[in-house]
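User: Fold this; tokens only.

Assistant: Input:
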Amino acid sequence: MKHKQLIAHTRKTNSLKKGVLEGVASAMTVDRDGELILPSAFEKSIPAFLEKNPVMLWNHDPSQPIGRVAEMWVEDDQVPFKAHLADTPKAQEIAALYRGGTLNSVSVGFMPLAFSDDEADKLPGQK
């Protein structure tokens, strides 16, 4: 089983002052490994994720929760989200790094159920 992560960008927002981080978890863009997750791949998993335990982790580390995803949805060719950052020193440090522009992306971890390395299946821009 292949475990991957996708890097996506956060949106410019003033809501970080209120502890809300807004961004796009996935979009129709090729990642740095030359791979792409179709936003439609999230449609079935989003409701269960939001209902069960929508924890936002720092560096995919379960010992470092930094907030909770409050909303996530598929919209056109992207998967926007809104997350509430925790009132902890680590989460507040991360919020300050986003506000200052040092951080500008998020990543999602995933285990693909199916993937193709076939050249005929590649989209423009994929390696």
